């Protein structure tokens, strides 16, 4: 017999697209709700909104929504009350909802003076369920990418060898995983070729200008932040929360030295055929 959900109240599945990954500073760009009532009836609502802030290129690459797409769309406030009413009495579900989706939604409701109480609702994170079914630890990684059980030896370096074997197994499992260490590190964090620093806090625009890629200035030109909020850069430069390269860029920008993108080398011409 096929197993299914047993509902005593509606369950709303939320899919949220945003301008970034920090719930405190990100803004919703698109929100879709699939509400399943206890009798199985489905209700779908989906809205695209103008976040009131630039959508970073990296975010557009993820969800395909650009500034041009939202130019004439209403802001979140236009839907906030109706959305809260639609979710009234519902339990909530999503993928990554606990760490990101729900905190972002609550922040948007609060910014628009809409009361939304989570207490008393079940919040189901399908990602957490997935991790429970597919544990994300060294033992499970070894079993998947190497095979068998962890070796039981007296080799003092066996733990390090296990990690080495796992990484080699990950390389073999997918051609998407790069083979050069710097590229692996960037790929694992979802950082593309546009990143200026290893953490992707600063990225290159299509025009070759440095952009801030996090926080309240996400998507803004670094040159503009130097003028509009220099204290932000001074804070970054002195904060241990950022890596050394990020702090160096922030410090340099604060002192008037913006990063410059090196031009890509011209492709080598095909060699002349031998006569």
Describe the structure.
By secondary structure, the protein is an alpha/beta fold. The protein has three domains: 119 residues, Nucleotidyltransferase, domain 5 (2-Layer Sandwich); 40 residues, no CATH class; 53 residues, no CATH class. The chain has a five-stranded mixed beta sheet with strand order 3-2-1-4-5. The longest helix is centred in the middle third of the chain and has 16 residues. The radius of gyration is 24 Å and the shape is flat. The relative contact order is 0.10. The model has no long low-confidence stretch (mean pLDDT 89).
List descriptors.
275 residues; alpha/beta; Nucleotidyltransferase, domain 5; 3 domains; 5-stranded mixed sheet; two-stranded antiparallel ribbon; 11 helices
CATH architecture of the largest domain: 2-Layer Sandwich
Strand order of the largest sheet: 3-2-1-4-5
Query: How large, in whole angstroms, is the Cα Rg?
Result: 24 Å
β-strand amount: 5-15%
What is shown here, in short?
The protein is built from eleven helices and seven strands.
Write the layout of secondary structure elements.
Blueprint: E1 11-18, E2 28-36, E3 42-48, H1 57-63, H2 67-70, H3 77-86, E4 91-94, H4 97-111, E5 123-125, H5 126-133, H6 138-145, H7 158-173, H8 181-188, E6 202-204, E7 210-212, H9 222-228, H10 230-237, H11 244-254
Helix pairs in contact: 6-7, 10-11
